[in-house]
Amino acid sequence: MKHRYGFIYAHPDDETFLSACIIHQLAEQGKNPVLLLATRGEAGRQGLERATNRSELAKLREKEMDEAAKVLGLSHVEHLGHPDGQLAEIDFNALVEGVIAFIQRYEVEVLFTFPEDGGNGHPDHIAISKATTAAVWSGKCPSVRKLYYAAAASLRAKGHKPSIEVDTEAGWPIKAAALRAHATQYVAIAKYFGDLNIFPENRRWEAFVLGWQDGTMWPEQDLTKELEE
């Protein structure tokens, strides 16, 4: 079955931080979004308060991801299972092949991932972004028509304007519920979003820049409105 929209990130909760409302909106429209995570998030430091070792934490975070997926309406979630915190050190070709297999399996047409610098410089974010871009350029993913990067400050500084911007205020109850599902990561969530009972005005927008379309990197214009098609 073809799943038109795919999200590719490094850790459980990345999908919620960056694109919860977009994912939920697509799911509500019956578009069956799918998610690929490169790791199971077993290096999340505060999570070790609730698990005795990394293996146990990986299982716990996978369960949290399953709960968040139900909240958001994700059709499928897959984990490549690479070591958390070590994506930059593993064989890059193996990482790319894992991304290619995911894209091929679901015949994804529109992809979302981190920008090249990971948005915050995290090595895992950078590695999965580069692997996703390499997969799209490999010639092995003919289903892909568009690749979007999270609209980090670095992209905006280079003059790249978001093609997709979603105001999260109306969808905040859903996003907050998905964040709560990732309970082991409460410290990072509170630092970034504050009290989940209060809408964070400074985190209002989920935004993505069109980085690749039909063989062209950084096309001048995105002629479609993805969330309205």
Task: Tell me about this structure.
- The chain is of the alpha/beta class and 229 residues long.
- It has 7 helices and 8 strands; from the N terminus they run E-H-E-H-E-H-E-H-E-H-E-H-H-E-E.
- Strands 1, 2, 3, 4, 5, 6, 7 and 8 form an 8-stranded mixed β-sheet that branches.
- Helix 2 packs antiparallel against helix 6 (172-181).
- The mean pLDDT is 93.
Structural features:
eight-stranded mixed β-sheet, single chain, 7 helices, 229 residues
Task: Summarize it.
This protein is of the alpha/beta class. The protein has helices at 14-28, 54-72, 92-106, 123-137, 153-157, 172-181, 186-193, and strands spanning 5-9, 34-39, 76-82, 110-113, 146-150, 164-167, 205-213, 216-217. The longest helix is centred in the first third of the chain and has 19 residues, at 54-72.
What topology emerges from the helices and strands here?
Elements: E1 5-9, H1 14-28, E2 34-39, H2 54-72, E3 76-82, H3 92-106, E4 110-113, H4 123-137, E5 146-150, H5 153-157, E6 164-167, H6 172-181, H7 186-193, E7 205-213, E8 216-217
Parallel strand pairs: 1-2, 1-4, 2-3, 4-5
Antiparallel strand pairs: 5-7, 6-7, 7-8
Strand content: 15-25%
Q: Please give the alpha-carbon distance between the first and last residues.
A: 19 Å
Percentage of residues in helical conformation: 25-40%
Low-confidence stretches: none
Number of E-state strands: 8
The succession of helices and strands, N to C, reads: EHEHEHEHEHEHHEE
Shape: globular
Total DSSP helices? 7
* Overall pLDDT score: 93
Structural class: alpha/beta
Radius of gyration: 16 Å
Main pleated-sheet profile: 8 strands, mixed
